[in-house]
Amino acid sequence: MLRLPRRVLLRALLLEGTAGIIAASGLPACVSEKEAESSDAARLSVLSGYFDGRLAEAARIGRVSLSNDALQAAGHLEALERSAEIIASARDPGPALAELDARVEAELAKGDVVEVAGWILSPTEVALCILAARQLDG
Amino acid sequence: MLFNALTDVAEGQVLKADVCIVGSGAAGMTLALALQGRGLSVIVLEAGGPTETTEAIQDAYRGRMSGIRTWEPHRMRRRQLGGSTTDWAGWCMPLEREDFLERPWIPRSGWPITYDELAPYYALANRILELGDVPWDRDVLLATSPHEPWPSAPREYETRFFRFSPPTRFGPKYGPVLAAANDVAIYLFANVVEIVLDDARKNVSRLECRAYAGSGVPVPFRVEAARFVLAMGGIENARILLASRSQEPGGVANGSGFVGRCFMEHPHYYSSAGLIAPNVPDLGLYLRHAVEVWTGASTQKVELMGVWAPTAALRESLGLVDFTIELSPGMEIDNEMIGANTASALLARRDERPERVGLTIRAEQTPDEESRVMLSEEVDALGVPRVDLRWTIRREDDVALKRALVAAGVFVARTLGGRLFVPSEGDRFDWTPLPGGHHMGTTRMAANARDGVVDRNCRCFDVENLYIAGSSVFPTGGSANPTLTIVALATRLADHLLTGS
Q1: How far apart are alpha carbons B64 and B383 in whole angstroms?
Q2: What are phi and psi of B63, to 5 degrees?
Q3: For B179-188, how does the pLDDT look when each residue is reduced to its tens digit (9 = 90+)?
Q4: How close does chain A come to B426, measured CA to CA in Å?
Q5: Residues of A with CB under 8 A from a CB of B
Q6: E-only strand ranges, B231-368
Q7: Is A119 among the domain residues?
Q8: H or E segment to which residue A14 belongs
Q9: CA-based angle B349:B351:B353, to the nearest 5?
Q10: What is the CA radius of gyration of chain A?
Q11: Closest-CA distance of chain A to residue B403, Å
Q12: A118, part of any domain
C-alpha cells in the first residue's frame, strides 16, 4: 500500500481537500480519462458508502474536528493519513470499507478514541469525517 | 406515649430518661423502635408536629447557601414526625463492599467498619423499609427478572439494582407503634437549642429545649438522660453541635475540627450524557419493574430498577469515585454542535435511525474539608444560628468522571456498536449538578479522634455519652441513596446501646 509523507498529506488535505490527497498520492497519472473517472468514482463511493450517503452530516462532524484539531490533539494524525491512503487507492468500495471497519474496530478494542464535541469516536471515523468535509467543501 | 410539648410540658420542667433521641426521622425512629421494650426508658424529641409541617415551623431550617446553589435548606428536609421520610421517594441500595475500604485515590476514604459488619443490619433495614426478606443478591435479582442485562465486564461496567420502598412514611407507619409503647415518650414541638456538657466536658449533662411551633412564646424545658443520640439529619446534627458553644468555642464534640466539614451530597447529573446505538438491547431491566422472588419460605414481590455502574476494578484502575448510570430510552441528546441525528451518520450503514438512550448519573463525591456546614450570623426564632451551607465538589471528581465516561464510551462502542456523548469542558465532565437531598459526612466516622467525630459505634470521641445517628456519620457516601444505610446503622447503634458491644 502506498505510504505518503505526513507533511505532504496534510498539506494536500488542508489546502486542496480530498482531491489534493488523491493528487498527492501519486497514483498513476498515465491512465485514460475514463479510467481516472472510474477510479475517482470508486474512491468517492468509499466515503459515501461508509456513511451510507450521509456525507453532509459526516462533514459536519469533520468540520468540528478540524476546528478543534481533535485528531492532532489526541495524537492520532496517522489515522487521517491511513484513511486517505485507503480511499486514494480504492478501486472497489467493498474491500476499502472492510479495511476501514477493521481499523475502527481495532482502535476501539485498544481504547484509542478521539473526543469531538463530546462524542467518543474512533480516530479513523473522525478522519473519514474530515475527509468528507474536505470533499464537500472543496 | 405521644406528648405535645406545647401543652404537656411545664416551663422549666426537667424530663428524664435512659436514652434521649433527638429527631424522629429514619434514624431516630428506627432507633426508638429497636430500643422499645428492651428495659430502657426512651425520650424522642421532635421539633415539628404530628403531620403536616408549616412554613413557620420549617423556618428554623432556613439558611444561606454559599457554595453550589441547590434547593434551599428549608425545602429539602421536613420538620415533623417521621422527618424527611415524609418526602422521600423510596430508592434503596446498600453501599458497595469497596465503599467501606480505604481507596488510596480518594482522600479520607475508608470506614472503620466493614461491609460484613453492617450486612446483618441491612437485612433488618429491609424489613423496616418494607423491602421484604429478599437479600441484596444481584445474581438472584438478575435471574428473576425477565429482562436481559446490558453487557458487563469484570473490569469495566456492571449492572446493579435499586429496590423501592413503598416508600415507608415513618410518621404514620411507626408513630402509632411508639405512641402505644409505655417506655417510649415522643415529645412533639420539642426543639433543642443547646447541648450542655458537665463540668469535665466529657459528658452531656442536659439538653436545653424550647416548646415552640413557629409562633407564640417559646417555653423552656430540659432533658436529662444517661445517653443522648442526635438523629436530626446531616445538616442539623452539625448545626446543633457547632451552635452549642457556650462551653467549647468550637462547639461540642469538635476536638478534631471535623464537625460540619466534608459535607457530601450525591450530585445528580440528569439527562447529561447520552448514547446512540443500532438495535439497542432490551432496556426493561433498567426501568422500574416488579418481579417475584422465592425466598425459600415465600414468594415476595420486589420492585427493582437496574443501573449501569463501574466495577470496583475499573474504579481502582482509573482512580474513580463511584457512580451509577440510569438509562432512559428515547431521550434527546443536548449537544448543539453535533446532535444525535448528525452523529447517527457514523452508524448509518448498520441502522438508519439508531436508538437514543439518555444517561442520568448519580455520583459519589470525594470528602472535601472545604465543603461544609457552617453557622451564619443570623439566628432563628429560638436564637440558634442558621446554617451556611457551602456545598462544593472537587475539580478532581469531575475529571475522574470524564475519564470514566470516556471508558464507558469505548465500552459502548465495543459491546453495542454505539457511540456515547459526554458533556465536557476540556478534561472534566461539565454538567450542572443537582442535589439528591442526601446530606452526608458532617460528623464523620473515623478510626481515631484525629480524623473524625464519632467512632465505629457512632459515639463521639470527645463526649462519652453522646452518639450520632444518620448519614452525617458516613465518611464516604458511595453512590447508593443513603436511607437504607441510615436505617441499618441505626439498628446497629441500637444493638450497641443495648449490649455495649
Answers
A1: 16
A2: -170, -175
A3: 999 999 999 9
A4: 10
A5: 49-54, 57-58, 60-61, 64, 108-109, 111, 113, 115-122, 125, 129
A6: 268-277, 289-294, 299-310, 323-329, 355-363
A7: yes
A8: helix A6-24
A9: 125
A10: 14
A11: 11
A12: yes
CA quadruple B27, B33, B38, B39: dihedral sign:
positive
Per the CB < 8 A criterion, the answer to whether B220 and B208 are in contact is yes
CB-CB neighbors (< 8 A) of A120 in chain B: 405-406, 409-410, 412-413, 419-422
What distance in Å separates the CA atoms of residue A118 and residue B342, rounded to the nearest whole number? 13
User: What's the angle, vertex CA B305, arms to CA B303 and CA B310, rounded to 5?
Assistant: 145
How far is residue B323's CA from residue B315's CA, in Å, rounded to a whole number? 10
pLDDT per residue as tens digits for the range B445-471: 999 999 999 999 999 999 999 999 999
3-state DSSP assignment of residue B291:
strand
**3-class secondary structure, B243:** helix
CA–CA dist B161, B141 (Å, integer): 8
Contact B418, B273 (CB under 8 A): no
Taking the C-alpha atoms of residue A24 and residue B171, their distance in angstroms, rounded to an integer, is: 78
d(Cα B144, Cα B302) in Å, to the nearest integer? 10
From chain B, pick out residues whose CB is under 8 angstroms from the CB of A125.
346
Number of structural domains (chain A) is 1
Contact B463, B492 (CB under 8 A): no
Q: What average pLDDT score do residues B107-126 get?
A: 98
Q: Provide the domain limits for residue A93.
A: 6-25+32-137
In Å, what is the CA distance from B412 to each residue of A51, B333, B359, B429?
20, 16, 12, 18
- List of domains in chain B: 1-130+168-264+367-393+438-501 (3.50.50.60), 133-164+267-363+394-432 (no CATH)
Amino acid symbol at B85 = T
Run means of pLDDT, 10 residues per run, chain A, 138 residues:
50 50 46 60 86 96 94 93 94 93 96 96 97 90
Residue type, B469: A
Tabulate helix, strand, coil % of chain B (nearest 5).
25, 30, 45
- Domain-located, residue A1: no
Query: Is the sign of the CA dihedral A51, A55, A60, A64 positive or negative?
Result: positive
Query: B285-293: long-range contacts (C-beta < 8 A, 24 or more apart)?
Result: B285/B142, B285/B145, B285/B147, B285/B148, B285/B149, B285/B150, B285/B159, B286/B150, B286/B326, B286/B327, B287/B329, B288/B164, B289/B145, B289/B147, B291/B141, B291/B144, B291/B145, B291/B146, B292/B144, B293/B132, B293/B134, B293/B140, B293/B141, B293/B144
- State whether the Cα torsion B47-B52-B57-B63 is positive or negative: positive
Q: Which set of grid coordinates corresponds to residue A126?
A: 473522525
3 state DSSP class of B389: strand
Kindly state the cell numbers that stand for B98.
469497596
Band (B215; pLDDT cuts 50, 70, 90): very high
